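Workshop exercise sheet. Pairs work together: one partner reads the sequence aloud, the other fills in the structure field after running the prediction. Swap roles for the next sheet.
Pair: D.N. / O.F.
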Amino acid sequence: MSLKAKTIVGVIWSFAHQFGVQAITFVIQIFLARLLVPADFGLIAMIQIFIAIGKTLMDSGMTASLIRNQKNSQKDYSTVFFTNVMISILIYVIICLCAPLISLFYEEPILTPLVRIFTVTFILQSLASIQVTKLTKELNFKLQLYIQLPSTIIGGFVGLYMGYKGYGVWSIVWMNIVSKTLFLFQIWYKSKWKPDLVFDYSSFKKHFNFGYKLTLSGLLTNFYLNIYRIVIGKMFSVTQLGFYNQADTLRMFPVSNLTATLQKVTYPMFSIIQDDEEKLKDIFSKITGLVFYVVCPVMIILTLIAEPLFITLLTTKWIESVPYFQILALSSVVYPLSIYNLNIILVKGRTDLHLKMEVLKKVTSLLFLFLIIPFGIWGVILAQAISMFIHFLVNAFYCGKLLNFPLNKQILSLSKIIFINLIVAFIIYYLMYLTNGFFNIGYIVEMVIVTVIYLIMYFTISKLLDFKELEEIEDLLRKGLKKIDFSIN
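Structure field:
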């Protein structure tokens, strides 16, 4: 199978894997949000920084090195496997010892046992990391889907049952542990790879030298992404943090999943063609255009229907999340572009530049955050929204230099999409204003009407103006569906 055909099939299976699993997770989270109270989600948000940092340290960027490296030996895979497992155990012990200090900082005693039990997932994930890496490198997302789906569903049922029985925040904890345990058992059973009892120092050095800069960048990124939760959790109530966390989670659902879907395919693909400058630039330009063409209308539609969406899915107890969601959702349109620009930096092996960029972005964003903290929680929300654009501009600027595709040309290539979406959004918003939410015809009907009118106008204008992105999406679906093999290997 050619690289193009393999990539198309990989994209579709990656899409099915990412969105299939996340759609089920999303539904489970919706039901949990209806069963639990905002404070339960606030408690989980308080420990997310420790979970994120632990996962980053556990991997040390070495699985990314395995994917990027053209040829890996059994020694490479086994060495990284045992490194990940040993680090995960060490991190788990350290976090368990620090758990009382975390509880003291937030003044929430329940966090001590919560942290100690939840972070068991570090060890579970480390034991499955290389199998997942090999399947990703081979673009085998079909098997990952067949393994992940039952794990997610069973774990979800455990969480819902516990939520229904009144276990509160522990429902979320055990849902995650059960899902990851089932995934671990399945991937060891179905994956063809098993580690050898070997640790090669030269292999460790090679992958660690590539990965440690990614680890430092990841630590900085995770600290930065969670600083908003730390500030809100410390300065405001745990319930307020719950409202913020729900808004942030829901706004990232579409963009993070679409980005992750394509990233699983594009990073290995970019790695294969990393030395062909023109081909790399051409494929990068097409992918960013396609993603932005899809993400932009999705996030604007979600912003327009945010209030009826939250009331319908989560009930009125989550209504305070709506304005947070709207501001954050609009800023999320540039998130995929930012990530794909960053991918090019990694594919080129410039982990040194990656680290410098992360320092620049995070320091600038944090300075801005601390300047507007006096404006209260709205200052925190606005700072996070603006930081999205700061990250995109920095990533696109440096990536543009490596690809000879400068920032101004990247923005210009997307300007038509931006302009059309702004026009359609303004028309829909004005119609909603004139009709007072379409005459209060019901939340679900209102959401359907807004979505349908928006998409009809968007695709009609795209067709009239011959948007190449629309043609490429049609072509991708037409060719890709013919190549899918639904059998289990």
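Discussion prompt: Residues 201-235 form the longest helix (35 residues). What would you look at next?
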